[in-house]
Amino acid sequence: MNLPATAVLMGGISPEREVSLASGRNVAAGLKEVGCPLVVEVEILPDRLWRIEGERSGRPFRVIETLLKRGVECFFLALHGEGGEDGSIQGFFETLGLPYTGSGVSSSALAMSKSATRAVLKGQGIPVAPGVEIRNPGVEEIRRAVEDDSGFPCFLKEDFSGSSLGVHLLKGPPDLDRVLPLIVESRLPLVVEKVVPGKEVTVAVLGDGREESGDLLAFPPVEIRPKKLFFDYQAKYDPEWTEEICPPRSLSKAEQDDLCRLARRVHRVLGCRGVSRTDFIMGSSGPVVLECNTIPGLTKESLLPKAARAAGVDFPGLLARLVRMAMGSGR
Asked: What is the pTM of this model?
């Protein structure tokens, strides 16, 4: 199957906008390299207008009309966070009946919510980090969840955040006192997770997880060794702040196989399509799931391209697979 003319959507309205722009530009270059006949870069601006490669911005429907007239057949989503990874843009393309890469509306929205993901995975017997969810956070609710239910050290996470934004490591009461005013003012749902000692590992999975019989390819695990206290935003995108080892030398073949099996199961339980990347802590009692990303980063420093290379899949080849899956998904 020849690749179709493809528009790459990037930017967006979330705090992860700059990462999305880097992902999108990298994707556009890779699609050109793999022989895509037409690649159009589309930037979604903070005011929600769309712009085609420096042209004047316009409303989404007008821009879509222009792209279709140019022969675009597929839309590659290189968006992260709110408006890109939460099911909203997926619903837009579903309504228009246009093919797009990645997971659909329900699985995107599900995976974007840490609390909903935890509930679904726990219901299927998949181990997650011990924690509690706070739907209506107030000072007393947060203190009770941290000090009584979890204890220190713990992570306080915004329910819908990505790229480690909105994540606070609380080592003791002074840390809680410092972040409480910011957290209470935002009124966003929260998840409190107990710190699980162990190795941080991530596993990417490629394939259509909607059918039990579907073939899913798990790429080799990547062990993450941040030089900071945890794998925060800076450590994710600045190679000087973290060491990423693929495959992990510190994990046995059996442990790596177990992680891959669990990542495939998470992909399937959440109904992911295209690609997902599940983050784990490999603790003393085995792996626990932290979260699942339905549009992993695609920058030159991102974990997914590194894992794909370790499996013998170069970046342009990975992109070609994702586009072909989008075109063959029936959407």
From this structure: 0.90
